[in-house]
Design goal:
globular, 6 strands, about 190 residues, Uracil-DNA Glycosylase, subunit E, alpha/beta
């Protein structure tokens, strides 16, 4: 089975898993992009627009993510974008730890299928899945090797839209991703 088929099978399995939190109250937003992506971006959970379109990062924060990708000459089609929780929490609240725990086995299987050289987490929830003691304000942009991947925590684009300082830090960290990716592939 190739990667595309494996991802489709996993998506169908998630659609059928009625025990997953938020099942029935929101659409599944599985993820999209290249199954051969070198960089996997992981956000926290879909928002209203993402739930409507069943696509990750298509609202205002998605537009900013697309602009940041353009700055590093990496179109959205060359990366893979998903969330740690794959259904929208009510009123766009933060995901609960039980929701994160329920969805992470599926996320790990996505990672295992795609096998990216780099994982870029967008915001603290996805970062803390990999680095439980990390703080986004302190650790953003700092590359850490985790198994076969380089992990780079980044500010969430939605937070960068609300803060000029976070926007500048997100942009700076994005501009460093190509070098970090090159380093990750040579190790």
């Amino acid at each position: 089975m190739d990667k595309k088929e494996a991802l489709e099978k996993l998506k169908n399995e998630m659609e059928a898993d009625i025990d997953l939190p938020l099942y029935g109250s929101a659409n599944l937003v599985f993820g999209e992009g290249s199954e051969d992506a070198e960089i996997l971006f992981i956000g926290e959970a879909p928002g209203r627009r993402e739930d409507e379109l069943r696509r990750p990062f298509v609202g205002q924060s998605g537009k900013l993510l697309d602009k940041m990708l353009a700055k590093i000459h990496m179109p959205r089609e060359r990366v893979y974008i998903t969330n740690i929780v794959k259904r929208r929490p009510p009123q766009n609240r933060d995901p609960f730890s039980e929701e994160i725990q329920a969805y992470t086995p599926y996320l790990q299987r996505q990672i295992d299928i795609i096998k990216p050289a780099m994982i870029a987490t967008l915001g603290r929830f996805s970062m803390n899945y990999f680095l439980p003691d990390a703080k986004i304000s302190r650790d953003h942009g700092t590359a850490t090797r985790i198994n076969a991947h380089i992990l780079v925590p980044l500010y969430h684009p939605a937070a960068a839209l609300r803060s000029r300082k976070m926007f500048q830090e997100l942009e700076k960290n994005f501009l460093e991703l190509p070098k970090l990716l090159k380093d990750a592939k040579t190790v």
